[in-house]
Amino acid sequence: MDPVLAASLFAVTLFLGMLLLPALNQMIDITTTRTMAAQTHPPTVIFAMLAGLALVSALLAGYGMAGGTTRSWIHMLGVAAIMAVTVYVILDIELSPGTAATAQLLPVDE
Prior knowledge:
Distance between the termini: 42 Å
Radius of gyration: 28 Å
Number of domains: 2
Helix content: over 70%
Shape: rod-shaped
């Protein structure tokens, strides 16, 4: 093999390696980052505070309606529905990564 040809092939191989390796390293890093993000969860105290927030919100809504002569069923059902949906969506996003709500939040690189 001609030494000039061998040297040029070595230079092209080295150049392509320098071009390919950083991109490959970034691809591996992003998969590792996504895997670790899916496995990382907030502490249990966050879920306890979420449940406490739901109870305190219901208490304050009930306390606000206590002064009236009649109960407003729309307000009672509204507070219960909003709190239930909020807690459900937060737990759904956090605990089940394959659902439709989570799929809409994750960016897709094309």
